[in-house]
Amino acid sequence: MPLEDYTIVIGLEVHSELMTKSKLFCGCSTSFGSEANSQVCPVCLGLPGTLPVLNKKAVEFAVRAGLALDCNIATFSKFDRKNYFYPDLPKAFQVSQYDIPICQKGHVDFIVNGEKKTVGVTRVHLEEEAGKSVHSGATISTSDFSLEDYNRCGIPLIEIVSEPDMRSPEEARIYMETLRNILRYAEVSDCKMEEGSLRCDANISLMPKGATKFGTRTEIKNMNSFRAVQKALEYEAIRQAACLDRGEKIVQETRTWDDAAGVTLPMRSKEEAHDYRYFPEPDLVPIVLTTEYIDKIKNDLPELPVAKFHRYITEYALPEYDADLISANKDLATYFEAVLENYKDAKVVSNWLMGEFMRLLNEHEVEITDVKVKPKDLAKLFELQDKGTISSKIAKTVFEEMFISGKDPETVVKEKGLVQISDVSEIEKIVADVIKNNPDPVAQYLEGKEKVLGFLVGQVMKFSKGKANPQMANDYLKKALAELK
Amino acid sequence: MSIIDKKTVEHVANLARLYLTDAEKEDMTEILNKILDFEQKLAGLNTDGVKPMAHAVPLENVMRDDTVEESLSVREAFLNAPCEAEGFFKVPRIVEKD
Questions:
Q1: DSSP for B22-52?
Q2: How many CA atoms lie within 13 A of B34 on its CB side?
Q3: What letter would DSSP give residue A157?
Q4: A16 and A148, same domain (yes or no)
Q5: Which of A3, A144, A369, B40 is buried deepest, with most CB atoms within 10 A?
């Protein structure tokens, strides 16, 4: 039966590196891109006789993340050892949290195709990152040996486990994007999927529409972008549907996403690989948090995207689309609010930010935080436009110059001689020239083809190098043409 | 009562990458059963009103500030490494061959 007759069930396990300066259990730096194995010590190399000491900031960040996801924060939690042999884990166990995670029962809200969606967060727990393997061959299976860099090993991670609440690959992607936005707002992680500081594994299964019992699931790994999350799950849903239609059973297994080929492939693993034999970590004592501590972190949390979204609609009367787009991006929202301190028409600001501003950001590959245009100067640009000093067309030229040089709009207008022509005699002169140089269109207009007016106004603007006041150009052109009738 | 049989010992040994002789397996089976028998005695004790412990020592919140300390030099990092290549720890093939 077609895929539409199945219900797709998806749950995600998301790993996010926390932005601490030092590792979770030792003082090694967490900075990205250093020489291999230059940020390691006896603790994170798992040398015998060493003892871990918990990073206070990592606990705070995990609590912040949990609160931002509306979780209950455990006043008592502890660490456990997850035992497995893999060369990126020198101790042969990962320090994680098993039965008492630091945060539980939260949720992530977002909008899919205009509908509100809530995905439950089962738990958020704190654990250590593994090292990075470089394989000698093209893939792990074709490699005779591998090379290990332990700089990443021991960086604090949070694992965010969702409920199996997502019903389409698109929802899974938007959930991931929303999660990233929230974690960035909470300032706990930089969430760069390309650098691996945000990663996810997805569990996906199908069941016939109307059924309540979930089908057998597969776990998909190695999706390195938001787009890949959606693509991999779309592929996997179709693959499972085809299997079921052939009367085959779904094998519960881990599969890897091959982005270049656009397929998921089974990963070979031994049967015992998932026997982790968790037990309490004897080298670390429990974490006990007071409600005062938790409340203080809660009060220090910045306004989160969902709250901003609603405020932009109620306070600034922005359309949902604008409010969603701007509130989702912390840096954009900060900029937007800074412009509004000096300019009151929020819609004008949001149009500009979503249009010209974004266009130039992409064109020049600049981050919002590095933009040279000061928010108050952008507000000034809108004022110049409102006062009629410059036309909206010229405003774009001025903005481009501001974007490149960082100059204020008044200076740019003055330097480039871009002040709008609103002088009646000057406009009349240009209008007369345009009429003289375009006898055919003028004749057509006089015969009743009023559409030609647009062309003639365009000529006036062109002739004046965009500086003519468009409204006046229109009015005086009509007036002059009426006199010819 | 014997809870642990030889098969369980073999399974656990394999998970821990321990390679035991047959005699060691027999020996281990007996020892592990003794340990579990002892724990059965504990299970018989009345623990009403005793809070479950998460750790053997009565400590909590032993933490450090988030400050970066000096790491080992790359040279020092490899002093105990069986095999090093190009500044990495070189390890044998990770997955089994077909």
A1: HHHHHHHHHHHHHHHHHHHHHHTS--TTPPP
A2: 6
A3: E
A4: yes
A5: A3
The predicted-structure confidence for A336-371, as pLDDT tens digits, reads as follows 999 999 999 999 999 999 998 999 988 888 888 889
A207 with A10: CB under 8 angstroms? no
- Tell me the C-alpha distance between B23 and A304, whole Å: 63
A246 by Cβ neighbours in 10 Å (0-12 / 13-18 / 19+) ranks as exposed
This complex has an ipTM of 0.89
| Close Cβ partners of A384 (under 8 Å, ≥ 6 residues apart) | A390, A395, A398, A409, A410, A413
**Sheet hosting strand A218-221, strand order edge to edge:** A72-73, A103-112, A115-128, A156-162, A6-17, A198-208, A218-221, A254-258, A263-266
| A89 and A24 co-located in one domain | yes
Amino acid at A105: K
- Is A21 within 8 Å of B87 when comparing Cβ atoms? no
**Residue A474: CATH number of its domain:** 1.10.10.410
Is residue B85 less than 8 Å (CB to CB) from chain A? Answer: yes
Domain containing A478 equals 424-484
The pLDDT tens digits for A184-223 are 999 999 888 888 889 999 999 999 999 999 999 999 998 9
* Domain identity same for A367 and A446: no
Contacts of A35 in chain B (CB under 8 A): 74, 87
Same domain for A389 and A321, yes or no, is: yes
Residue A394, burial from CB neighbour count under 10 angstroms (0-12, 13-18, 19+)? buried
Q: Is some CB atom of chain B closer than 8 A to the CB atom of A99? A: no
Total tally of structural domains belonging to chain A: 3
Q: CB-CB: which of B70, B72, B89 is closest to A148?
A: B89
The answer on A316 and A227 residing in a single domain is no
Considering the segment(s) B1-46 as one domain, its CATH architecture is: Orthogonal Bundle (1.10)
- Please identify among residues 7-66 of chain B the ones whose CB lies closer than 8 Å to any CB of chain A: 11, 14-15, 17, 54-57, 59-66
The dihedral through the CA atoms of A473, A478, A480, A484 has a sign that is: positive
CA dihedral B12, B14, B17, B22 (to 10 degrees): 90
Does one domain contain both A268 and A381?
Answer: no
Flag whether residue A20 sits within 8 Å of chain B, measured between CB atoms. yes
The verdict on A37 touching B (C-beta cutoff 8 Å) is yes
Q: Which residue of B has its CA nearest to A54?
A: B63
Query: Of A270, A293, A316, which closes a domain?
Result: A293
